[in-house]
User: Which sequence fits this backbone?
């Protein structure tokens, strides 16, 4: 096929992948909605019945009368509800795999159309980095059973692909002179993969905070929705976030803070020039270094560690989007 044909195929595959990821997101959203409804539908009639008895008798409920209410709500997820939740989760994961196949095809054909690696501008890096998010998620789903991240992951991928297609699209073409180097492959691929891991780790940390709060409410006598009960224990999620970020940090260190300056010396004649992109890449590294250091030396676990991980994720997102689109610098060639 000709480069023009490859470009046309890529321009069809990327929007198709976006639609499939959107359907996966809807399926995972239904999973969470069904999980919440599985508690609400059965908890409300029990409370309503108790209220009716109290009103009719004019008496005050005793602790013995109140005791069964919370466990009944907490255990309200029946076999039928469980089957619906499992079905929504499986459909969402299957659609994510389908979207990934189309997404991968779109990235590959984009590279064939351009005759080079497909991350030479902001559009290409966006579709490649979002593919890295999908790859990291699907790998860790198999290894650590992270299906519960499906909603967050598909939302992020759909949002990035939508932004890329609607606002960042650039026709396939040759690279600017500064990008003609094998360091392009090393530097940008490492940044994309570690960025995907930062995203997965950030999403786990967000859900950790939600789960930990729900567990504290249960200890105080409250209830937990079926969707949250299906999440791993908060402590296990904290450990999963650490594993993902511990994988990403050395990759970011080598790809961005080692390979990047070496490439900069070849392209611009200096290793470091405090370009905005360089500064925010360093800030991202410092935040994640603080996260790992705090866990290793100060014994930080749980909420404090999760907060640092989430801050690091937002710093990375600003480095990825804000610096490229809002700040002028030597890396501006990677913009629109």
Assistant:
């Amino acid at each position: 096929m000709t480069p023009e044909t490859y470009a046309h195929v890529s321009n069809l595959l990327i929007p198709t992948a976006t639609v499939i990821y959107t359907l996966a997101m809807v399926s995972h959203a239904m999973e969470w909605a069904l999980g919440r409804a599985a508690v609400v539908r059965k908890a409300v009639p029990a409370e309503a019945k108790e209220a009716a008895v109290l009103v009719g008798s004019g008496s005050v409920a005793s602790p013995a009368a109140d005791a069964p209410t919370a466990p009944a709500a907490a255990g309200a997820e029946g076999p039928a509800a469980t089957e619906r939740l499992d079905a929504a989760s499986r459909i969402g994961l299957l659609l994510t795999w389908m979207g990934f196949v189309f997404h991968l095809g779109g990235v590959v054909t984009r590279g064939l159309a351009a005759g080079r690696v497909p991350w030479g501008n902001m559009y290409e890096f966006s579709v490649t980095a979002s593919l890295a998010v999908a790859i990291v998620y699907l790998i860790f789903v198999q290894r650590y059973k992270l299906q519960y991240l499906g909603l967050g992951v598909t939302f992020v991928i759909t949002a990035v692909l939508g932004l890329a297609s609607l606002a960042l699209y650039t026709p396939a073409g040759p690279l600017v002179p500064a990008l003609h180097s094998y360091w392009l492959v090393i530097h940008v691929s490492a940044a994309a993969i570690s960025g995907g891991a930062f995203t997965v780790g950030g999403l786990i940390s967000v859900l950790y905070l939600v789960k930990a709060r729900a567990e504290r409410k249960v200890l105080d006598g409250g209830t937990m929705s079926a969707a949250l009960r299906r999440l791993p224990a908060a402590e296990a999620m904290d450990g999963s976030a650490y594993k993902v970020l511990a994988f990403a940090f050395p990759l970011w260190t080598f790809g961005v803070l080692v390979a990047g300056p070496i490439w900069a010396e070849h392209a611009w004649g200096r290793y470091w020039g405090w370009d905005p992109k360089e500064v925010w890449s360093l800030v991202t590294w410092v935040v994640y270094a603080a996260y790992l250091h705090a866990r290793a030396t100060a014994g930080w676990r749980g909420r404090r560690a999760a907060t640092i991980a989430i801050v690091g994720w937002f710093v990375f997102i600003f480095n990825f989007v804000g610096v490229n689109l809002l700040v002028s610098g030597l890396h501006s060639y990677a913009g629109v």
Notes: Residues 3-334 form one domain. The CA atoms of residues 108 and 162 lie 18 Å apart. The chain has one domain: 3-334.
